[in-house]
Amino acid sequence: MSCALFLDLEDTIIDEWATRNFLRTRDVCFVRDCINHRNRLIDLCLELEREHGTGMDINRDKIDCLGLFSYAVSHDADKQIFVEEMKSDIERMLCLKFDPDYVLTVDQIRLKWIQRTNIQVKPNDAVDFQERCGNKAMTFFNVAPLILKPQHKTAYLLDDTVGDLDLHMRKSGIRLCTRSLSRDREIGMLL
Asked: What is the tens place of the pLDDT at every residue in 84-120?
């Protein structure tokens, strides 16, 4: 199995949507280094398990693709701007590719959230949607199970506005995690 890493944009990768300036290279490199460290650790644990037959209780799902879960990208026109102006730079910096099915707009997130919760919101009203759905972590927990591909049983959301939460759905086997980039920058760990 593999794992998908969904990114927020504003205050995580860029300063704000209006200017689309990337945050300090040091911060983006920190995210890349954490991904690489996690994947190397999994390789090491699997190698030890093969050699010594010891079972280690770790999540073995390697991060193999990126997704976008940002309220900055409202609709298809914003998504096109993201694809044309930012996507390849982020892929190059993080050494991972975006899965096109995981590059979501707020409109797409809203429709999936309505499908999951059956709570109606005003069409094209981002404020109404954000007020009704609550915090971003809960939105991710409701939407991600509807969009994840079968090979992705684990997904992370990296965002400056969420807490560090893990949700394991026993019936489906899906594990969803949110990680606060702002807190983890300070303590030097992430995924």
From this structure: 999 998 888 888 899 999 999 988 998 898 888 887 7
Under the phi-then-psi rule, with left for phi > 0, alpha for psi from -120 to 50, and beta for the rest, what region is 79? alpha
Q: Parse the chain into domains and list their residue ranges.
A: 2-187
- Number of alpha carbons in the 13 Å side-chain half-sphere of residue 18: 0
What would the pLDDT profile of 12-51 be if each residue is shown by its tens digit? 888 889 888 887 655 666 677 777 666 666 666 666 656 6
Six token digits for residue 57: 């209780």
**Smallest Cα–Cα separation from 176: which of 160, 154, 146?**
154
If you search the block for the tokens 């190397």, which residue do you land on? 40
Ramachandran quadrant class, 83 (left: phi over 0; alpha: psi -120 to 50; beta: rest): alpha
pTM of the model: 0.82
Q: Are strands 165-169 and 174-180 parallel, antiparallel or unpaired?
A: antiparallel
Rounded Cα gap, residues 4 and 149, in angstroms: 10
Radius of gyration of the chain (CA): 17
Q: What is the rounded CA–CA span in Å between residue 153 and residue 157?
A: 14
